[in-house]
Design brief:
The protein is 10% helix and 36% strand. The protein starts with a strand and ends with a helix.
Length: 291
């Protein structure tokens, strides 16, 4: 049977790690003339799913996560977010910051609602033998708009799907996402998709070296193909879509912290070069736990 999210509404934690550079107006430093964001990593929440009728107490619940493989993480710094602007209410501690919304899109030349997706409402697109390696023009509305950002020859970007039962965890079963037909986790494989995050930061300056506040962001993705196995058998792209969550971020509960790392005003100097986004992100990922 199909595997679906159970229960339907769940609360989990995710993480975005970004490198943000600011340029201020020399004549009025409350004006942020240019802010540039480089997305360094994404970690999405774990959710539970179940084959058949939903029973949140079932021992057969599958704890599922969309995981970012190395090729995807390495592709993120190459994605260009349009620079934005903003303002500070003052130049003292406690001054508020107002930034426009950053937008980072992966796997598609189109953005927002125009990003391509799989037509899971069409019964023909529920066939088990399509969409496992390429972009199927019968079921994806705009294959030409897909962009292979991670360079693996699959449409869009590839993320890993890993779902384990409590028994899988107890036995130490590995998730063989790259070879889902091999023995491994109850749910495992690759999902080909486009994705967009659009964080808006609202907060204040606690010092010259730190900003903090709340973050409002969409985490939107569309699957355009998948090679996923459930309990050792291949499932259709439509079934794979049903096994994965959509995300609604609670902006009031979602917090951000920006820490200065350029050595000024007593801050640590990580010697990152924003002109080398891949190298900069590598340093940021390695040292993020120091913040």
């Amino acid at each position: 049977g199909a595997i679906t999210i159970c229960p339907a509404d769940q609360v989990g934690e995710g993480t975005l790690l970004l490198l943000v550079t600011f340029e201020q107006d020399p004549a009025d430093k409350t004006k942020i003339t240019k802010a540039t964001a480089t997305l360094c990593s994404v970690e999405l929440p774990v959710v539970t799913a179940l084959v058949g009728s939903c029973d949140p107490m079932s021992a057969s619940l599958v704890s599922t996560q969309i995981e970012a493989p190395d090729a995807f993480i390495k592709s993120l710094p190459m994605l260009t977010a349009v620079p934005i602007s903003g303002t500070l209410s003052g130049l003292m501690s406690g001054s508020t910051i107002d930034l426009e919304r950053f937008v980072v899109t992966a796997g598609s030349t189109k953005t927002g609602a125009d990003m391509p997706g799989w037509n899971d409402a069409d019964p023909a697109c529920g066939a088990a033998d399509i969409g496992h390696t390429g972009c199927d023009m019968m079921c994806v509305d705009d294959c030409a708009a897909m962009r292979d950002d991670d360079g693996d020859a699959y449409p869009g970007v590839t993320l890993h799907v890993c779902g384990k039962t409590a028994d899988d965890v107890k036995k130490g079963v590995e998730c063989n996402a790259e070879a889902p037909n091999e023995p491994g986790a109850t749910l495992q494989g690759k999902a080909f998709l486009d994705m967009e995050v659009d964080p808006k930061f609202t907060g204040s300056a606690t010092s010259s070296c730190e900003l903090s506040g709340t973050i409002d962001t969409g985490v939107n993705y569309n699957i355009v193909g998948a090679d996923v196995f459930l309990a050792g058998g291949a499932i259709s792209v439509t079934s794979a879509i049903k096994s994965l969550p959509t995300f609604l971020v609670d902006s009031a509960a979602s917090k951000f912290r920006m820490v200065r790392i350029d050595g000024q005003f007593g801050s640590p100097d990580w010697q990152v070069n924003p002109a080398d986004p891949a190298g900069a992100c590598s340093i940021v990922i390695q040292r993020a736990n120091e913040l």
